[in-house]
Amino acid sequence: MTAMQDVCVDLATEGAELAALVAGLPPGRWSAPTPSPGWTVRHQVAHLSMVARLVALAVRDPAAFERATAPVRSDFEAGMTALLDEELALPEGELTDRWARNRAAAEQALAAVPRPEPVPWLAGPLPASVLAAAGLMELFAHGHDVRDALGLPHEHTDRIGHVAFLGTRTRDLAHHLRGLEPPAEPFRYELTAPSGVRWDFGPADAEQRVTGPAVDFCLLVTRRRHRADLALTATGAAADRWLDIAQTYMGPPGPGGARTGQSRV
User: Fold this and answer.
1) Would you call 19 exposed, middle or buried from its count of C-beta atoms within 10 A (0-12, 13-18, 19+)?
2) What distance in Å separates the CA atoms of residue 243 and residue 240, rounded to the nearest whole number?
3) Percent of the chain having pLDDT more than 90?
4) b/e map 113-129, b = 16+ CB within 10 Å
5) Is a pLDDT exceeding 60 seen at residue 183?
6) Is residue 219 a part of any domain in this protein?
7) Residue 225: which of 211, 194, 204, 246 has the closest Cα?
8) How many domains does the chain contain in total?
């Protein structure tokens, strides 16, 4: 894959852009329904604030992170809902301020960790750089929901390369979440970035292949669009099956419609 900007820099930039988008929303727009069933714009921002808070906690105080997320490991949906409710209890102005503080804390904490060093997370320890990519994935997915709700255009940059990388790394996760055995053979991914350059992941001689626009790939693995609506091509039976179940996050995948519900990372 071609070199990309540092993931922590891209994480901060993406967060700042989405924060600026919602900063001036009139009160009525916060209640606009998003494609995630039952979630408004306010839910999306609250979720992002919660995730940023957990990231900062995981880096700075792993023991406190384990205590805070113990209910999630016991009952994923109930635990995540309880964490989200803490953010939703805040008025919009306080919520955006808290999100800003949580983002800054997460960005600073991740930037201070050596890239290969593992950080605890809900699905198990992750290298700091991968956790930063997961944070960027959250911003991509939930930012997409917010823009859909508000009728705003989507302007993608090569920052999505980190999301694409995460999508290739979580190939086996999608199988495990459904009780399926991951394929033994490696996949090759050949994706075209928004800038027009090509990003390659996996061995060049792999028989199982996925090709197409990187934006479409990111929309697929975050389950924001159905594969039938995307210009992705699979070569090989295992790659074709994976396109039906791909996801980058823990939690229920949602139904397989055009939009498949909010992320539960």
Assistant:
1) middle
2) 5
3) 85
4) beeeeebbbbeeebebb
5) yes
6) yes
7) 246
8) 2
